[in-house]
TrEMBL record:
InterPro entries associated with the record: ACP_syn_III_C, ACP_syn_III_N, Thiolase-like
Organism domain of life: Bacteria
Domain Beta-ketoacyl-[acyl-carrier-protein] synthase III N-terminal: from-to ranges: 104-181
The protein's name in its UniProt record: 3-Oxoacyl-(Acyl-carrier-protein (ACP)) synthase III domain protein
Keyword presence, Transferase: yes
Domain Beta-ketoacyl-[acyl-carrier-protein] synthase III C-terminal positions: 242-330
């Protein structure tokens, strides 16, 4: 299993946000203390397909991979280039992957990387593919109103590419997956789909009780509800995935969770009593990039020598949907 990632060069740091908000409650230091984030990668004019191609090209070049051996492309995004065709088809062409390759998009957020691995495992186990290219590419900042502090301070953009081959199957454990669609309204872009088409009405800006400005065309996040869902759901998921894989918590070398923000991650670490040295938090320089956070964190930890070959990693994604998933990897 081979990892690569791409984060756009445009950065939005806390000093920029302090200037934009001119509010003593939202200084650069206070934003860092609240979120654990000091800067965020911003896609700007780049599309999800652009970032996906950058991540995949980096994977091929860094590891000397022959792209003609890829025979399935999975692309996770909630910000596709078009309603149709699938962005995966565009990326297949731009990467020069064989026309005999399968390719599809799947729409998931914070749990997307874990679900993508489960799909890849199924394709490999079923003999449908020999080498699966899993790309997570997300551009939430395109959905955010610049004066919505509840989201702009947290989210960044980026992409990750992972090559999973049949020989990797013994190193991918059993999965625990879950869904609770009753919470769908708590992290949502209300307009733009068939339920609420965009219009002059949906573009009207409103100010919430906390002073954040957004319209129905923008991303909305109910932070307290997302936090409650996380603390309610994730600890049980961690216990279940350990049990399903015949492991105890002490058998795991590293825990790499969806990098939501430092506050949520520290709350989970404390609730689960995970030693600090085993728990990866890497959100300060990139922000919450949604589906790419886990592979980006793994790649960066490997580059720093923190995660080493052969170690067991418990990965867990959770958020928008609500959707959650976890498994064990041995790199």
């Amino acid at each position: 299993m081979i990892f690569s990632c791409f984060c756009p060069e445009i950065l939005l740091d806390n000093a920029d946000l302090e200037k934009a908000y001119s509010d003593p409650k939202w200084t650069a230091k206070k934003i860092l203390r609240k979120t654990g984030i000091s800067s965020r990668s911003i896609s700007g004019d780049m599309l999800v397909s652009d970032m996906a191609v950058k991540a995949a090209e980096g994977l091929f070049e860094e590891n000397g991979i022959d792209r003609s051996t890829v025979n399935f492309l999975l692309l996770c995004t909630q910000s596709p280039d078009y309603y149709l065709p699938s962005t995966a088809c565009i990326v297949q062409d731009r990467l020069g992957l064989p026309t005999t390759s399968g390719a599809l998009d799947f729409n998931l957020g914070c749990s997307g990387f874990v679900y993508g691995l489960s799909l890849a495992k199924g394709l490999l186990s079923g003999g449908i593919a020999e080498n699966v290219l899993l790309i997570t590419s997300e551009a939430y900042t395109k959905h955010i109103h610049p004066m919505d502090r509840s989201t702009r301070t947290i989210f960044g953009d980026g992409a990750a590419a992972v090559l999973i081959s049949r020989e990797d199957l013994p190193n991918i454990g059993d999965f625990v997956l879950g869904t609770d669609g009753s919470g769908y309204k708590n992290l949502i872009v209300p307009s733009g789909g068939m339920a609420i088409p965009r219009s002059e009405e949906t573009a009207k800006e409103q100010t919430d009780e906390s002073g954040n400005i957004r319209s129905q065309d923008n991303l909305y996040m109910n932070g307290p509800e997302i936090f409650s869902f996380t603390l309610r759901t994730v600890p049980d998921m961690i216990h279940r995935v350990l049990e399903k894989n015949g492991l105890k918590q002490e058998d795991v070398d590293h825990f790499v969770f969806h990098q939501a923000n430092r506050f949520i991650l520290e709350s989970l670490r404390d609730k689960l009593s995970i030693p600090e040295e085993k728990f990866v938090i890497d959100v300060e320089e990139t922000g919450n990039t949604v589906s790419p956070t886990i592979p980006i964190a793994i790649k960066r930890a490997m580059e720093k020598g923190r995660i080493k070959k052969g170690e067991k990693i418990l990965i867990a994604g959770f958020g928008v949907g609500y959707s959650w998933g976890a498994t064990i990897l041995q790199l």
